[in-house]
Write a structure and sequence with these properties.
heteropentamer; A mainly alpha (104); B mainly alpha (166); C mainly alpha (519); D mainly alpha (348); E mainly alpha (494); A: mainly alpha; Helix Hairpins; 3 helices; B: mainly alpha; Four Helix Bundle (Hemerythrin (Met), subunit A); 2 domains
């Protein structure tokens, strides 16, 4: 086995695994802030796919996509965390199951 | 060498991600996520994306996650309460995740024959190459990001500010 | 005047809308909205009278046609016209409008603007149904007719204290709106296959066997159900009693009957003659049972609105019976009876409305011995009742006779007998109603009543209606000529094509005979 | 290149740099105490060894030997992790700093642990990570002073990181590279005249960098995270003995790193201020070591400036600090970028 | 880049977006320059003016030949103009509405207006983007601004809840969308929508394309709140301020539908055998789920939220149509839906205020007696939502179903129309409530005042709904022209 070459698919599967873990986190975590972190994990997983594909195609565009995803993630984080702060002020909890003023 | 590095950091990634799920305190989850992100940065280096690796550290680990920990500290968020959550989400969600993972993995493995391997020596993208495309062909999206960030700043201020102050 | 022919139908359609807009724009001061509504409806009525005046009963096809492309693709046209079938229905609608306004004159006291505006919109919608020759346009008016009705029932229902009038409105709307979904699908399917919404085009396309039998069956069924609910045919009548006891008088008198019956003849029988024929045994059975059922239930009701509701089911079933007998005389009778029902029903509603207005109750047991205090009311009630029962010289007789005799000779003696029993029963319920309200010992309420008889406005309306009943009863040919030409030409062409067209002339002869006998 | 040889040499380099770095950290502390003492008209440490030169060693020994206390209420894993992160980050960035001429010996660069195309970005990245050390320390201490200090500190660091990063863009624009070696090389030709701070016209950038660097390292006049009068010790209130020493070392390590970066980016790095005026020495060893001397001298003068400022400028108020950073430094840095690009566009 | 469009400078192709951005920046600058105590009303007018200017600018784009700009990242054609005009119209109405209904003591109205205008930048761009990178960023611009606006009522607790739900689920969906983009990039090496269509036949792996498409669909269907990705809608609509709901229930959805059309017809035309049944299934599911859930609602905004899910289903039915007619029907329905939905939320805003003094259906009891104009308008828009003829709602539904039955799915209109019947039941609850006489103990909100701006907003929405129902030829023509764009581009690929 050649120790200097790793198949691209390994990276992609790692990415898929991370993505799935992110989705699972989104489903099972009960604190808003960790739910949000799970989303960040998903985005990171996607980024890994992008970079792998960019490497495979020798296309810079894939990397730039990742760059933009990062910027957007930063913007989203700013807004998301601001929302989380405002919800904490209003409800004094971050538990997903207690954010239920509007249930039937 | 490459294989070893890949395995190590992939393991870090996965361990971090799993730890993110297992930890009940948000700050630990955040730190796990930082581990994931930093390991990803190394993987990017392995894939020849050195600018992205640095950006990953600076933007994600250094800015986004700082914000997260900052908020955790500011709100003094405690341990996660163990509430059962939505059963429907789990009943549908987990099989769906398994299916997605299975399908993607199968497809990826099947596609592997069309993909090249990754080795350290090939295809390092220099920052110049990156900027050339970024400021030329993708100028419009780049400029658009400024609008996005403007909105984010505006929104963060608008949302986090307490009512009654101007 | 002939220059008017091209636009007269559009004028009839637009006039009430303009009136509604004027009412909305004017301030709500005193009787102003009512006056505007009355003027508008009278004007519309005058316009509708233009139609019989210039109608050429000998000519084939539709008259007063106006057509232009409304939307190019999908191919929807503004296409209106009348034939003998719709002619008198349009006139009837025009006639009932001012009556409705007068009937609401005192009973609607608040928010008159909205009331009269919606009333006039409803007017347009109903007229539109009768004159549309493009299926899409037709469907538009058909659906539009539901809305003002539902809102008016909800807003101006009689029992405002409880939730009953909104419930009645809801029930009415759902009952009529849901079945129109399959109707629209059927129309859309036809359009997808033929690329046209035009009535005549579709009639030809279906007549030339462009579609599979199964498809036609479903289409016909979709049409049938949508219309049958609106009539209502027995089994689909659940909305009617509620609406009758809740709706304002002017609305209740037009809600049932003519729209559905007209649509059945024009679009079910007219478009799908073969399928209609297949459905006929069922419809006849339903109709005959409906007559018995309605009359029987009417006998035992304690509330006079409900008596009227079940009585209406019975008399509308009569019309259905006439249609699905597939005889020319039956058709004539059905259409005539539809018009009769409109007139008589209107009169009854005005009468019962007058009672309700005076005593504030619709429970029959609260009345008794009223005839002494209000002789005019009693007289008019009796006259109207006799017309409904089908006393010779009144309009009800001609229609009922045509239907019964044609059923007897052309369809089935058994069903005809059943229907005849129904007629007798309806006489029974009406007479017992009259007896309970106007005769017998005076009830508490009646004793307490100061004794104000019908006012001038009410008398005017009722005598006028009574005159019409009598008029139609004495010389039904004025109507029947037109109706017959319409039935023959539009609904009749494919309907009677197979076995009846060959001996259509003989049926015409029979019909003539019957009519002579009627006189 | 032999892999094992590369590994061995790398370990050697790391060890050497580590030792030198830590020693200089210790003596920077001494330097500060002495200098501040002089500024305040007193002696500073002078008892241990000649001129107090052994003072750092004794201090170190003391901190090592002190009782290791962990308060009861702390969140232990992070409480222990935080000083490690702080020190680790402080040590990490020195790895990409080239101390001298890029002389390679058997394929390995001698005066630099790792040569990367994106050395500058690595430094920025590591700087941005170092926030965690302080933030986590403050939070895990379970003490309001610590928390407030940490919050202040992380907010301050995140804010000034922006100005710091932007101030470097001008330099990068002029060089067209993110490699520190390349950045130094373009400043080497005419000596002091071609240094970025003078010849490159980056004096504004240098000023911004200087200010931001003070804030990044939590040094006076921006030492609010540990303003004794309000917050006692700030984020390290609950730390003592060795763990405190780590924070302490991290702070001074950061100072040195910042000094190195300033030297590389603005002051011509290891090149001589006389440029080509003095012909390069023929002797190989002098040729190799002279640049290191220049480098050390420049870093030293930067540190001197650091301490001088600490001794003379009063502390800012927190809102002033934030306002200054966002309202003046960031716009000024952007102005610098625009100006530099304009000049480069007009005079290519 | 083909030669024909070199005559048009790139900047003209994004002129509406440029105008909107400048307007937003101008509002922010003015906001900063004004004294805190001063009324921010004028800023709303500035926004309205800017949006109108953008609307005209996009109409002006009709005169230039269809083509791409900025290295093939955006494309202006009849299609983009159609949706630009639609979105600008909606934002204009929402701005005018906010002008009168935002509480006077709201200090941060400047930001509010700026966010609306900036959001419009993203939505507009979404309809003309043909590069997935631009799509992504435009989507985020529109989403983030709506997240923020959704959480604007901070004092109730419901506002932040709405915002967080919208935000978390929105970002979650964005994750899927991005994963899809990554996959399609991996399969074809490009992220340019038109190139994707050309490169799919030579893609690295067909299954990669399929999974990419599936993931993209998840992301987009979430944005249009089609079942089963609709769970966020009711909570968000309920918690967000009413004028914001008027905006976010229509404009971002319109943009997302435009994107859906671009992607399925422009990017994946050869997968039609696959996505057609998929979209049908989603359509049926959406209308059924939406209507069934709406039946149980007591809260007006929640009910309308479910109804909007159902409407997404009706709209998706149009996709069944063959080629251009399907696109035209979908575009038209989007317009009709937007007109009536923005209308009904506008009326509800005026009637019950920014803070929602009348949350429940029962609270609207007797509105028509208290405020005949508002009550009448509610009835009118509800009638349109039910789908009664001579309103935009009917004609849109009609077109959509006609297209579906022409496309061969007769059962689809049938299900759709039965659903309309179901829908009528809950719309009528509100109709009846509005028309009823007010109960003695029903909460009486102060008699609503209709200001100039809100009046204009209501008038625009009403006229649009009426025109779309009675004389739709003009709009339909525009929708068809826009569909033609696709016909040409699809045939160009084949």
């Amino acid at each position: 086995m050649n120790f200097d070459v790793v198949p691209s698919s390994w990276y992609l599967i790692l990415s898929a695994l991370l993505f799935s873990l992110g989705v699972i986190g989104f489903l099972i975590k009960r604190s808003l802030i960790t739910v949000f972190m799970s989303i960040e994990l998903m985005l990171n997983a996607v980024n890994l796919s992008f970079v792998t594909f960019a490497h495979d195609w020798h296309a810079v565009k894939g990397q730039i996509f990742v760059f933009f995803v990062m910027m957007v993630a930063a913007a989203e984080a700013a807004v998301g965390l601001a929302i989380i702060i405002s919800i904490f002020r209003a409800r004094a909890t971050l538990n997903v199951d207690q954010i239920d003023l509007m249930k039937l | 060498m490459h294989l070893v590095l890949f395995l190590i950091f992939a393991a870090f990634c996965l361990a971090g991600a799993i730890n993110l799920l297992l930890q009940s305190h948000p700050i630990n989850s955040a730190l796990s996520l930082i581990v994931v992100m930093s390991s990803l940065a190394v993987l990017y280096l392995l894939l020849g994306a050195e600018f992205l690796a640095a950006a990953q550290i600076i933007v994600y680990a250094g800015a986004v996650m700082v914000l997260f920990t900052f908020v955790v500290m500011l709100l003094n968020v405690g341990e996660e309460e163990k509430t059962h959550g939505s059963r429907v989400a789990k009943v549908i969600g987990f099989p769906a995740v398994a299916v997605i993972l299975g399908v993607v993995a199968t497809i990826v493995l099947e596609t592997q024959k069309h993909l090249a391997g990754v080795s350290l020596s090939d295809g390092v993208t220099t920052t110049q190459d990156l900027s050339r495309v970024l400021f030329h062909e993708l100028l419009l999206p780049f400029e658009l990001t400024s609008v996005l960030i403007l909105i984010a700043i505006l929104g963060a201020v608008a949302l986090a500010r307490k009512e009654g102050h101007s | 005047m002939d220059s008017m022919n091209g636009i007269i139908l559009s004028l009839i359609l637009i006039a009430p809308l303009v009136g509604a807009a004027v009412i909305l724009l004017l301030p709500e001061k005193g009787k102003l909205p009512a006056i505007v509504a009355l003027i508008t409806s009278l004007f519309t009525f005058l316009c509708t009278l233009h139609l019989p005046a210039h109608f050429n009963s000998g000519a084939a096809g539709f008259q007063f046609v106006q057509e232009f492309t409304w939307i190019a693709s999908p191919d929807i046209h503004y296409h209106v016209g009348v034939d003998g079938l719709s002619l008198w229905l349009v006139v009837l609608t025009g006639l009932l409008a001012p009556i409705g306004v007068l009937a609401s004159w005192n009973s609607i006291k608040e928010r008159t603007k909205v009331y009269y505006a919606l009333f006039l919109v409803q007017q347009t919608a109903m007229l539109g149904v009768f004159v549309s020759l493009d299926l899409m346009l037709y469907y538009g008016f058909w659906e539009l007719s539901l809305v003002p009705m539902a809102i008016l029932i909800a807003m101006y229902g009689r029992n405002l204290t409880e939730n009953s009038s909104p419930k009645a409105a809801l029930r009415f709307f759902i009952y009529t709106f849901v079945p129109s979904a399959p109707l629209l699908v059927a129309i859309l399917w036809l359009y997808a296959k033929t690329g046209s919404f035009d009535f005549a085009t579709l009639q030809v396309a279906i007549g030339t066997h462009a579609f599979s039998t199964a498809a036609l069956c479903w289409l016909a069924f979709a049409f049938l159900v949508a219309f049958a609910v609106k009539v209502p045919v027995l089994g689909l009548h659940g909305w009617l009693p509620d609406v009758f006891s809740e709706a304002p008088v002017a609305m209740a008198m037009v809600v049932a009957g003519k729209l559905g019956l007209y649509s059945l003849i024009r679009f079910h029988v007219g478009l799908f003659p073969v399928q209609a024929r297949q459905a006929a045994p069922w419809m006849i059975a339903l109709a005959a049972i409906g007559i018995l059922y309605g009359a029987c239930l009417a006998l035992v009701q304690k509330d006079f609105w409900r008596v009227l509701a079940y009585g209406t089911i019975a008399s509308l079933s009569f019309c259905t019976l006439g249609i699905y007998g597939f005889t020319l005389a039956g058709f004539d009778g059905a259409v005539l009876q539809t018009i009769n029902e409109g007139v008589i029903g209107a009169a009854l509603f005005v009468l019962l409305g007058a009672l309700y207005e005076r005593f504030g109750t619709s429970t029959i047991a609260n009345y008794g011995g009223l005839a002494k205090k209000t002789p005019a009311l009693a007289n008019l009630f009796v006259i109207t009742g006799l017309a409904l029962v089908g006393l010779p010289l009144f309009n009800g007789f001609v229609g009922e006779f045509l239907v019964l005799s044609s059923t007897f000779t052309g369809v089935s003696k058994g069903w005809a007998a059943a229907a005849t029993i129904g007629v007798i029963l309806s006489a029974a319920y009406l007479l017992s109603l009259v007896q309970k309200i106007f005769y017998g010992p005076e009830s508490q309420a009646v004793i307490a009543y100061p004794g104000k008889d019908l006012g001038f406005r009410e008398q005017l309306v009722l005598w006028y209606l009574a005159l019409i009943m009598l008029g139609i009863g004495i010389c039904p040919n004025i109507l029947l000529n037109g109706i017959e030409s319409g039935v023959q030409q539009s609904a009749g062409y494919p309907t009677l094509s197979e076995q009846m067209k060959s001996n259509a002339s003989s049926f015409v002869v029979i019909a003539q005979e019957v009519r002579k006998g009627g006189k | 290149m032999n892999f094992w040889f590369f590994l061995l040499l790398s370990i050697l380099k790391v060890a050497l740099v580590l030792v030198v770095f830590l020693t200089s950290v210790a003596y920077t502390v001494l330097l500060e105490r002495k200098l501040v003492g002089r500024i305040q008209n007193r002696w500073g440490p002078s008892r241990v060894g000649p001129f107090g030169l052994l003072q750092p060693l004794v201090d170190g020994a003391k901190l090592f030997l002190k009782e290791d206390m962990i308060p009861a209420g702390v969140y232990k894993p992070l409480y222990l992790l935080a000083p490690l992160i702080a020190l680790g980050c402080s040590l990490l960035s020195i790895a990409v700093v080239p101390f001298g001429e890029p002389i390679t010996w058997r394929g390995v660069k001698l005066f630099e642990i790792a040569d990367l195309n994106i050395g500058l970005l690595i430094i920025l990245g590591v700087t941005s990570i170092s926030v965690y050390g302080i933030a986590l320390a403050g939070w895990s201490s379970n003490n309001k002073y610590s928390l407030l200090g940490a919050l202040r500190s992380s907010a301050q660091m995140v804010s000034y990181e922006l100005a710091l990063g932007l101030s470097l863009v001008g330099v990068v624009l002029r060089t067209g590279s993110l490699s520190l070696t390349d950045i130094v090389k373009v400043q080497s030709v005419h000596g002091i005249a071609s240094w970025n701070i003078f010849g490159g016209g980056q004096i504004l950038a240098f000023f911004i960098y200087l200010t931001a660097a003070y804030a990044e390292t939590n040094r006076a006049p921006f030492d609010l995270p540990e303003a004794e009068t309000e917050l006692t010790g700030g984020y390290h209130t609950e730390y003592s003995s060795m763990k405190f020493a780590m924070f302490f070392m991290a702070e001074y390590g950061n100072m040195i790193t910042v000094g190195c970066v300033a030297t590389l980016l603005f002051l011509g790095g290891w090149t001589s201020p006389f440029g080509d005026l003095i012909p390069p020495p023929q002797n190989f060893f002098i040729h190799a070591l002279m640049p290191i001397l220049w480098f050390v001298a420049k870093v030293f003068s930067f540190l001197f400036l650091y301490i001088w400022v600490r001794g003379t400028v009063p502390r800012f108020r927190y809102d002033q600090l934030m306002g200054y950073g966002w309202k003046y430094l960031v716009p000024a840095a952007m102005l610098n970028i625009v100006g530099t690009s304009l000049i480069m566009a007009v005079f290519p | 880049m083909n030669t024909a469009l070199q005559s048009v400078p790139d900047i003209y192709r994004i002129l509406p977006e440029v105008i909107l951005t400048l307007t937003g920046v101008w509002i922010m600058l003015m906001d900063a320059a004004m004294k805190p105590s001063k009324s921010r009303r004028s800023l709303g007018w500035v926004g309205a003016f800017g949006v109108t200017a953008a609307l005209y600018a996009s109409l002006g784009q009709l005169s230039m030949p269809a083509g791409t700009a900025f290295f093939g990242t955006v494309q202006t054609d009849a299609f983009s103009v159609f949706f630009h005009v639609l979105i600008c119209g909606i934002v204009l109405i929402a701005l005018l509405l906010s002008l009168d209904t935002l509480p006077a003591d709201q200090h941060h109205r400047g930001e509010y207006f700026a966010l609306m205008v900036f959001g419009a930048v993203g939505m507009c761009l979404l309809t003309s983007a043909v590069e997935l990178l631009v799509v992504f960023i435009a989507l985020e611009i529109s989403s983030i601004s709506t997240y923020i606006l959704a959480g604007y009522r901070k004092n109730t607790g419901k506002g932040p809840e709405a915002a967080i739900k919208y935000f978390l689920l929105g970002s979650f969906a964005t994750g899927f969308l991005l994963y899809g983009v990554a996959m399609i990039f991996g399969a074809t090496g490009t992220t340019q929508i038109n190139d994707i269509a050309a490169l799919i036949p030579v893609a690295k792996s067909p299954s990669l394309v399929l999974i990419a498409f599936a993931l993209l669909m998840v992301g987009i269907l979430f944005k249009v709140s089609a079942a089963p990705f609709h769970v966020w809608t009711p909570d968000v609509y309920q918690g967000a301020p009413s004028p914001v709901v008027a905006l976010m229930s229509t404009a971002p959805k319109a943009a997302a539908f435009a994107l859906l059309i671009r992607i399925v017809y422009g990017g994946f035309p050869m997968l039609k055998p696959m996505w057609l049944p998929l979209l049908w299934a989603v359509a049926v599911l959406s209308m059924t789920v939406g209507n069934l859930a709406a039946l149980r609602q007591e809260n007006v905004k929640r009910m309308l939220a479910y109804s909007s899910i159902a409407h997404a289903g009706y709209l998706l039915a149009a996709f069944a149509g063959a080629g251009t007619s399907g696109i035209a029907a979908a575009a038209f329905y989007t317009a009709a839906y937007s007109a009536m939905n923005v209308g009904i939320f506008a009326v509800i805003t005026v009637a019950s205020g920014y803070d929602e003094k009348l949350p429940l259906i029962g609270d609207f009891r007797g509105l028509i007696h208290r405020a005949p104009l508002l009550g009448g308008l509610i009835l009118f828009f509800l009638i349109s939502l039910i789908g009664i003829p001579f309103t935009g709602g009917f004609f849109g539904k009609f077109l959509s179903f006609t297209t579906a039955s022409q496309g061969g799915a007769v059962w689809l209109p049938l299900i759709g129309l039965l659903n309309s019947g179901l829908a009528a039941a809950y719309y009528l609850k509100l109709v009846v409530s509005v028309a009823q006489t007010p109960a003695a103990n029903s909460p009486v909100a102060p008699k609503p005042q209709i200001g100039v701006a809100a009046g204009a907003a209501l008038a625009f929405a009403t006229i649009a709904t009426l025109v779309l129902g009675i004389a739709p030829s003009q709009v339909l023509g525009a929708a068809k022209a826009s569909a033609q764009t696709f016909a040409t581009s699809i045939s160009a690929i084949k």
